[in-house]
Amino acid sequence: MSKPVQASFGLVVRFDLIEGHERAFDELITETVRGIRESEPGTLEYVIHLDPSRPGVRVFYELYEDEAAFQGHEAQAHVQRFLRDRAEHLRTDPEVWRVVPAAGVIRTNLANMIP
After folding, report:
1. Domain 9-102, CATH
2. pTM for this structure?
């Protein structure tokens, strides 16, 4: 495995939603992602994953240029709103893993496939 890239880091976050809250949580995500896309150049990737076999689970993968980019992300109004409003949709506290990229492939044309 490659040596981790020290300048960047990521988060993997799993959310378990209250049954029936999927649509409202996804709307909150949509608003948040819009703000990230428009105003956070240091947020390199922010991808929400669904598990079709578990409709109440959302898994986020986030990759930041560096710690300053992450702190800037956390300070944004759209992120503060997400952090505040997400609780009403969650069955449990989110599971959060801080990770450092070690190996992989990122294809820039993938960004065009994500709404």
Report:
1. 3.30.70.100
2. 0.86
